[in-house]
Design brief:
There is one protein chain. The chain is α+β, with helices and mostly antiparallel strands and 309 residues long. It has one domain. 31% of the residues lie in helices and 13% in strands. The strands form 4 sheets. A 4-stranded antiparallel beta sheet has the order 1-2-7-4, with helices on both faces. It has a two-stranded parallel ribbon with strand order 3-10. β5 and β6 form a beta hairpin. α1 packs antiparallel against α4. The chain starts with a helix and ends with a helix.
Length: 309
Amino acid sequence: MLNSKQTHTQFVKSEAKRLGFDFCGISKAAFLEEEAPRLEKWLAENKHGQMNYMENYFDKRLDPRLLVDNAKSVISLLFNYYPEQTQNPNAPKISKYAYGEDYHEIIKNKLHEFLASLKENIGDINGRAFVDSAPVLDKAWAKKSGLGWIGKNSNLINKQQGSFFFIAELIIDLDLEYDGPIKDFCGTCTKCIDACPTEAIVEPYIVDGSKCISYLTIELKENIPTEFKNKMDNWAFGCDVCQDVCPWNSFSLTHKEPLFENHKGLLNFSEIEWNEMTEETFNLVFKNSAVKRTKYKGLKRNLEFIKKT
């Protein structure tokens, strides 16, 4: 006979599936001892560039019990975004995660429905939902709960389907059965390190964020340093190189989320259409997209920097 902990755990996993999450793992809410010295060192070496928010809430990043009173469990969830269609090969490139509507809203809505369902079916649960916009080390939690391992490119890699996933969490004050981590399957492979256009993967498992094309095209608000001229591999927003070359992504499956499809012709844009884009077109095409983070001015800066001379 199942005890309440087992019953609740089964319910959590079945709800995750019902809401469209591809994988669900659960770990005990506790201090991340292994990650603490790594994060401290990474910040001390200024590998976060101008992402000053990474310095904030240091304690909360490492201990979910500071985010949710009496937290017992961290439910980690993966949501696939791998697209069926990709861009015109001659056009400036944007990361696959930005093809459709902004994932933050889509996934947050699912998480709120998830939390409401837990309260309705299990009882008075206190919890919070997180998706890539709060002081939560999402990859560390996904790793702890057995959803994959952290690859040499610092992305979470799932053995079944690779790394084209959004990671989300529910931190709740409910005791559940916990999953354990799996081993690292990168082996001797260094494809991501060898392929990185700006040599941002400075050693296995360590990315210098200030050299990463995703940082340069999205997070950096000043001019892109001239040392990166002709090294951007035609990326105008984000970068997928270290994922595209990863052998584990040969197992990627097409996502099933209609809102991640592009319905505005973006994938067919030519190089000329990108470079001649007006602010009006930008606002129309990227109205509900993650690309709006750069604003029109930021995207134009990126396009100008990568323009072939």
